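sorry for the late reply, my laptop died twice this morning and i had to redo everyting from scratch. anyway the thing you sent over, i finally got around to it. pasting the sequence first so we're on the same page, its 276 residues, then the predicted structure underneath. double check i copied it right bc i was rushing
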Amino acid sequence: MTPDSRSVTTTPDPFAPFKAMQRAAWASFGPLALFTTPSAARLVRFARIQPGQRVLDVGSGTGVVAITAARLGAKVTGADLTPELLEQARESSATAQVEIDWREADVEQLPFGDGVFDVVTSQFGHMFAPRPDVAVAEMLRVLKSGGTIAFSTWPPDQCIGRMFELTARYSPPPPPGVAPSWLWGEPAIVRERLGGRVRDLTFERDVMLTSSLSPQHSRLMTERSAGPVAKLVQSLETGDPARLARFRAEYDAILAEYFENNQVRQSYLMSRAVKG
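ok and here's the structure:
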């Protein structure tokens, strides 16, 4: 099930330190991944994955999308930047008794040949690549002509997108040229970034419900598991406790808008297109 590799010319990556920080920060994401299993099944259905298709899941994390697709009979490769998440993915695929080719890989330089895959997916993964144009070019390069690209992202005006924007305001600025991840949740931006290289671009919205006793409980889980938030909190706990308190108060206030009946309502966008 190993896709064709390509010969890659090694050039200095100006974002290598930034990616190393991301790799380390997201190592603790495992506990939050459980909440994304229903949306993983929704994305697999939305992508119209069929048995026998070769599927690449980008930013595969703990493997929820990849394993769901493999259980349908697809031939799946899962690629992620973080080794700790890939190790959890390997354990989960073994438990599910499905064979998946797990790769440590950067979406901006995928180690696969041109036109290898029938479907390329990403659930809240590729959106963290610093350069959207490079990530899109790579995802479409490895996709066959007539193949499907499908991904889920967080809209900037909804719960998670607002959380990312808030976290960014309290964090040190990223290196110049890094695009905000939450822009991937805007249909107009998705349309612009995919451009004329695709056809039949379709959008759907869905909702992820996560159980919690309070907005504060939800925030605490995020502080312990979500890379950017965890990194910010660790920095402010010793460096600026008053600023941390302000951040937490704003975070809780946003969460409270989406909290009802011990659940947080988190809307997300799904995008699907066919490579022209």
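Strands lie at 54-58, 75-80, 100-104, 117-123, 143-153, 198-211, 259-260, 263-275.
thats about all i looked at so far, will dig more tmrw
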